[in-house]
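Hello again, I could really use a second opinion on something today. For a while now I've been wondering how a particular protein folds. Please have a think about how the structure follows from the sequence. Here's the protein in full, and shout if anything looks odd to you:

***
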Amino acid sequence: MHAYRSHTCGELRNTEIDQQVRLSGWIHRKRDHGGLLFVDLRDHYGLTQCVILPENPHFATLERMRIEGVISVTGKVVARSQETINKNLPTGAVELHVQELEVLSTAQELPLPVFGEPNYPDDIRLKYRYLDLRRETLHKNIVLRSEVIASIRRRMTDQGFMEFQTPILTASSPEGARDFLVPSRIHPGEFYALPQAPQQFKQLIMVSGFDKYFQIAPCFRDEDSRADRSPGEFYQLDVEMSFCTQEDVFNAVEPMLRDVFTEFANGRKVPNEPFVRIPYKQAMLKYGTDKPDLRIPFEISDVSEFFVEDAVEFGAFKNIVKKGGVVRAIPAPEVADKPRSFFDKMNSWAQKEMQAPGLGYIRFAEEDGQLIGKGPIAKFFPADTLVRMAAHAGIGAGDALFFSAGKANDAAKLAGAARTKIGNDLELISDDEFRFCWIVDFPMFEWNEDEKRVDFSHNPFSMPQGGMEALENQDPLEILAFQYDIVCNGTELSSGAIRNHRPEIMLKAFEMAGYGPEVVEDKFGGMLNAFRYGAPPHGGIAPGIDRIVMLLAGVENIREVILFPMNQQARDLMMQAPNTVDNDQLRELHIRVVEPPKKDS
């Protein structure tokens, strides 16, 4: 028999009754029932109930052992009586009667309980992550992550993609976030950077003559934590293809993602139809965001035209529209009969959480067969205007409209957040389905209000729609790019683009964003020079592994699907990183630490 186990703790069934077996694992739980000691023994695979009698010479040893000690037990598999079968356990029809016991390691008093998984502060969970990972829910999340990655790898290789590994030590480049820098010992005063993404390398792979590449790539960005973003590092499915159009990228990635979500949906619905394609401009109008949650069963509409009609007397919004602003209407289904406090809370939320002036609203009802408006601002509208506005917004009696007014971007942001809040507050968002969409036709450039200039809006390496002709002849703010995102249930899973592989077009695009050729040559010279020796048209995408698993696991915080995450302050409480190093190491790296000035108390 094997030194530690003949079976795992999740393996025994009725077929093993009367067999002599050996199990090893952690003491998950102990129960003393009238002299009999019951131990639930746990390993990676499951849990088995073990029983030891008082006359067994090992009884006292096992009785003294703390929870989470590690033991090996040998004994006979016995059928449980009918009334003691545990139907919630795969091994629940049998138990192991212990004959021999070996203590493999003992456990001190636990700072974090494993059995029962009670809520515990995040700092304790992160400091003792190895204990937290023994808990069933988190353990299953990490197993799910492994299975999802294996499924993705299999589906990518089945499509003819080859997996390559790109460098971890590379050059710093301005890609939108702060780099993690690594000092060079042999090149004093010079630094490597950890890659924010393998962007340039994967494009160079295409220039090198490879056709379809993928990688489960680690990416490093020195940015703040969010619920859907881990500080420091994350993983993405990095993909690039040669001689491809935007449609080719969609055809490669969309079926793979749909099949992965279907495989791990666990009863949730994954629509079989193609992902909806929504132009960026339309997404901002209808959903107030480029990350729309399509489970919410209503859309935002532009109602600016109704506020500038001569008979409308609501001067505040009328003046906003006349000065170039907009008014967006957010439906709230079947809330017209709710108390005034519902509407007041929405207004207070807009002011406190969104720093907005507020949310106007109109409730709609039916009187004598006619649709009428109620509420503080309804009196400023003629009856026929209210009827037409309700029809335009797709609502009727019993519904309400909230209004967001201001500059287009500001109004869209508030309207989008209000749409999500209304969907959540009214419990209109289903937890048992995944709704995907492509956001396409992103603008190539945007206006940088702080610096009063045109700047890139998304990815500077993207090919503008229309190529050089568009750059030379169109208003920069009207130029669209071959850029696209995948969004699922309001979470951005992926960004991608068809790349700008022509040096002259790239230099022109950067020039329009205020970067001279010397800057482009300095920051991106390696890639730009490669393009001068014959570059194929190419494009790609990079779905986030952590976010995919987060959605499939049904958790709200990305830390629940990462083995050893940092806390919100980007600290690893378990390994105590970052930490200081001694002066010898600093001298070897030609570095001197300059302490930040102390704040006045």
Notes: Residues 105 and 562 are 27 Å apart (CA to CA). The two ends are 68 Å apart (CA to CA).
